[in-house]
Hints:
alpha+beta; CATH 3.30.1330.10; Phosphoribosyl-aminoimidazole Synthetase, Chain A, domain 2; 2 domains; six-stranded mixed β-sheet; 11 strands; 29% helix; 23% strand; disordered N terminus
Amino acid sequence: MAAVPITADVGGLPPEFGLIGRHFRPLAGPAALDLEDDAAVLAPPPGRELVMAADTMVSGVHYLPDDPAEGVGQKLLRVNLSDLAAMAAEPLGYLLAVSAPADTPDTWFAGFAAGLAADQAEFGLSLLGGDTTSTPGPITLSLTIIGHVAPGQAVRRRGARPGDEVWVTGTIGDGALGLAVSLGKLADPSGFLRGRYCVPSPRLGLPLAGRVSAAIDVSDGLLQDLGHLCRLSGCGAEVEAASVPMSEAARVAGPGWLAQRLGGGDDYELLLAVPEGRGAALAEACAARGVPLTRIGRFVAGPGAVRVLGEDGQPLAIGRHGWSHF
Amino acid sequence: MAAVPITADVGGLPPEFGLIGRHFRPLAGPAALDLEDDAAVLAPPPGRELVMAADTMVSGVHYLPDDPAEGVGQKLLRVNLSDLAAMAAEPLGYLLAVSAPADTPDTWFAGFAAGLAADQAEFGLSLLGGDTTSTPGPITLSLTIIGHVAPGQAVRRRGARPGDEVWVTGTIGDGALGLAVSLGKLADPSGFLRGRYCVPSPRLGLPLAGRVSAAIDVSDGLLQDLGHLCRLSGCGAEVEAASVPMSEAARVAGPGWLAQRLGGGDDYELLLAVPEGRGAALAEACAARGVPLTRIGRFVAGPGAVRVLGEDGQPLAIGRHGWSHF
Lengths: 326, 326
């Protein structure tokens, strides 16, 4: 029993505290209590319901290991924000779980945090808490997003009715083509497609409540996500292939990419069921917020089937319906 | 352009939906909307603040790959519940992010979900939402827990004052010894130590608000976690080694394990700063709820140092202060 006093003082903190202090504490809002405590404490906005979702990104699965860390941070936040957008909710804050190999360079964390910081400012939310751990596997990032909505006003996936029209925001297929660009399968002189894949634009702030029957964000591919809406709503849908809006860059890629555009994922646009006759007014309201809205088809009676129609009104065969993460 | 109709019907869902339906949907509460939607919608308890934390467990880092999946599910939930307990908050629900290799057997998910189900029933909360993804790395589990507390009543880490006493719940060191058992370094005929390591007991429901100056849960080791309290409170602490409560199994292990007991992690007991003279009444209130409370030292003036005193009142040298996850 030696007489040497032991100390657990400020200078002796383990490395995880340095990482948190350098990169994540600057992201923390008031409710995070400076990330000092076991948990965050948040007074929910009075009279609102909370909307909560979690999405994970794994290096080599959901993004390429060489993708810039700043964009990885942005995409992680934005795919979660897109889930709030699909429910017509507003963002409040998020919790972040980061598992990374012990040799992950500090510059990676700095870039990742810079991407989060930029998007916190853009979308108006802050870090509430989280966890950092080491892993022998690839970088694994889980984000839990917290939003809010007026009571009873969250837009659901179930609710589409035969006769409703199918509308989408923005352009469809850029995400899948951007992935093809990343994999060297497609040219992208302007960088537009790759930008759409790496840093999607969550469609927050649209006046959907009370004006749409159902909504979903297009994360796994237009046809698959439309299939979810149909299955949960107990109806089918017909999509006019020629009506699906495409970007100029997708148009340049050519008609051979139709299956990827309709079946690939990562668009993070919103797919909406709009009662007949109400689309034009909604499109005008969205356009006023800078988001184009396009009618691409209609919901029909029947057991959950999605059909894609060619310009002659006949069904097309498309081989790939979407992307499964597991 | 063939005339074959394409369908994205119920039978054609990708495998992740089967996994969720089989194992995770039965865990979902009303706010989870049957896990059908992009996010959960939860009406927060009126007049309460929300308390939120996230903790990750990685196979091979935070548990052994051969550990029974049921216990992994229980530990994941319980380490998060322990964060709520440290803030004196009550559980409400949780979101779950699971990344697993594609060849993870379905029986692993079944066991994992069974562990979660058992503890949901025991602790009164339910699944709100989450994400499942594949990974080329080890199973990685992130859980975000949501709790609630009366406004202003969350107990913080900062707040201990010189003169306050250091108290702990339960017994200290079983977690570290249980890990030693798991690694084959210590015998454990009764299985008690391993049980404490694998399935900790979060100390929820204790009447701490207004009766303690500060609290933290012992996850990284008694001395390191006490060091956090001291650093944030701007004071130091002295711990009497002989006063630190140990289980009968730890006593049998012998005095050679002192450094592991005080420095090792995974106890998930609560470490409390209690104003002088108020410990006995608090201990009585906790005992009435089945949780023993023991005074182990006191907070002192000074810059965040933790000293361990032997039976002669002289400082002891202890080599290991805790466990860093990164």
